Amino acid sequence: MRRLFFLCLSVVCNPLWAAHGYALWGDLKYGANFSHFNYVNPNAPKGGELRLVSNLRVSTFDKYNPFTIKGSAPAYLADLMFDSLLTGALDETGAGYGLLARDVDVAPDGLSATFRLAPEARFHNGDPVLAQDVKYSFDTLMGPYTSPAYKSLLEDVAGLEVLDERTVRYRFKKPNRELPLTVGGLPVFSRAWGRVNGKLKSFDQIVTDIPIGSGPYKIGPVRFGKDITYVRDPNYWARDLNVKRGSNNFDRITVKIYKDGTARLEALKAGEFDLMRFFSAGDWARRVNGKRFDTGELVKAEFKHRLPTGFQSYVLNTRRDKLKDIRVRQALGLALDFEWMNRQMFYNAYQRVNGLFGNTDCQASGMPSVQELALMTPWRQDIPPAAFGLMAVAPRTDGDSSLRANLRQAQSLLKAAGWEVRDGALRNAQGQAFEIEYLDSNESGARMASPWARNLEKIGISLSFRPVDFALYQQRLQKFEFDITSIAYGGTHNPGQEYADMFGSKAADQEDSGNFAGVKNPAVDALISAMTSARSKAELLPACRALDRVISHSHFLIPQWSAGTHRMVYNSWRLAKPESMPPYAAGEGWAIDTWWAK
Question: Which of 204, 252, 291, 515 sits at 20 to 30 Å (Cα–Cα) from 503?
Answer without folding.
Answer: 204
